[in-house]
Specification:
Blueprint lengths: L3 H10 L8 H12 L6 E4 L6 E5 L6 E7 L25 H17 L5 E7 L7 H7 L8 E14 L3 E3 L2 E4 L1 E10 L3 E2 L9 H12 L10 E10 L5 E2 L2 E10 L2 H22 L2 E10 L2 E3 L1 H11 L5 E3 L10 H6 L2 E9 L16 H20 L1
Parallel strand pairs: 3-4, 3-5, 5-16, 6-15
Antiparallel strand pairs: 1-2, 2-4, 6-16, 7-14, 8-12, 8-13, 9-11, 10-12
Helix pairs in contact: 1-3, 3-9, 5-6, 7-9
């Protein structure tokens, strides 16, 4: 049975995109199966990813989760276990999976007297994996009382544990806004309906919406598509966007404003529109009691800080709205911060043992409290 660090190197070398994590899933299951622990059972509600059930009594379950998918990013590091394809674990999911794997090893080998579900989740990067698993209703068979997860980040020094009460990660909605006009030669613009101008007007007005300075909100446009030929007014334009705030309810309120703006642009330009919502994540909620418990437990050994909210999004949010949850950032910083989703993001192997130990400390503290 390979070690957590060996596992990390293999996964990092062979990253797989969302819902394509077949080899990653098999690697994990094959090694976990070598434990030959009667208390362990594997559940596969989807084609990739899985749940390892550790069942020892008739009591409640704790849920620990790690994501396993990679990003379509070409790695630009010189590490010995560099990615062998055009994808990369640029968000540290190789580390997350290895931490959970090592924690599972510890629990099984020490015969811990607590029922635990170890969720190796696919497709976090699409914001879809957690919801799809919940939608299978597989967790309805278990009495889950608490859920735990972590995310590595180089913003904080290695070994730092950072979290907050309430919203830790933002709610996010992906948004496609399309405009449908009529093309014509630029020499006779009166014969057409300029979809690109309608899009420009939309983006200009969005930037001028009054924002409440004490209510964080982000609107970002990452991609714009329009036109085919330089001397033809485009009949089609599209903006691929995302919005984020600290609650899904607030995001929905802004969407209503956008629809009103689009109706006004339609009246002005006679260009029709379509607004389509993509992947949606509610905000990640950290349970206040679990936060206080984690603070008491971990502060004795780790630098535990209240970091406030971040405008990043995470689909563990779906778990946090169903079960009292504790999620935290695990610092990996060693002086050179590049940030998540960066082609040079590469946490040191040492953070794996720290993550395993933090999960063990949380479990031990929970058992003492129980």
């Amino acid at each position: 049975m390979i070690t957590p660090i060996e596992l990390r190197h293999i996964i990092h070398q062979n990253p797989e995109l969302s819902f394509q994590e077949f080899n990653t899933t098999k690697l994990l299951i094959d090694n976990i199966s070598e434990l030959k622990t009667p208390s362990l059972k594997i559940h596969m509600p989807l084609q990739t990813g899985f749940i390892a059930e550790y069942h020892v009594n008739d009591g409640e379950y704790l849920l620990f989760r790690a994501d396993i998918d990679a990003l379509p990013v070409k790695e630009e590091t010189d590490c010995l276990f560099k990615s062998c394809n055009d994808f990369m674990h640029a968000c540290g999911h190789d580390v997350h999976a290895s931490i959970l794997y090592g924690f599972l090893q510890y629990v099984a080998e020490h015969g811990i007297e607590q029922n635990i579900l170890f969720l190796f989740q696919p497709a976090e990067e699409l914001g879809a994996g957690a919801k799809k698993i919940l939608d299978t209703n597989i967790f309805d068979s278990f009495n889950i009382s608490r859920a735990f997860a972590l995310h590595v980040i180089d913003e904080y020094p290695e070994g730092t544990v950072a979290s907050t009460r309430g919203a830790l990660f933002a709610s996010s909605i992906e948004l496609d806004v399309e405009f449908f006009g009529v093309n014509t030669h630029i020499a006779s613009p009166q014969k057409g309906k300029n979809a690109l101008n309608a899009l420009r007007a939309y983006l200009d007005i969005i930037d001028r919406i009054p924002l409440n300075p004490v209510e964080p909100f982000v609107y970002g446009t990452g991609k714009v598509v329009s036109g085919n030929v330089r001397n033809i007014i485009p009949a089609y334009a599209k903006a691929e966007c995302a919005i984020r705030s600290l609650s899904l309810k607030k995001n929905r309120e802004y969407l209503q404003k956008f629809r009103g703006i689009l109706e006004g642009i339609k009246v002005m330009t006679d260009v029709d529109y379509k607004m389509t919502e993509g992947e949606t994540c509610p905000e990640v909620i950290v349970d206040s009691k679990l936060y206080d418990m984690a603070d008491r437990i971990l502060s004795k050994k780790y630098n535990f800080i209240d970091c406030g909210y971040k405008m990043t999004a995470e689909d563990f949010s779906y778990m946090s709205h169903k079960y009292p949850s504790f999620m935290f950032w695990l610092g990996t910083g060693r002086g050179n911060t590049v940030g998540l989703h960066n082609s040079k993001f590469l946490p040191h192997d040492s953070v794996i043992e720290q993550g395993i130990d933090i999960f063990i400390e949380l479990l031990s503290g929970f058992l003492r409290k129980s």
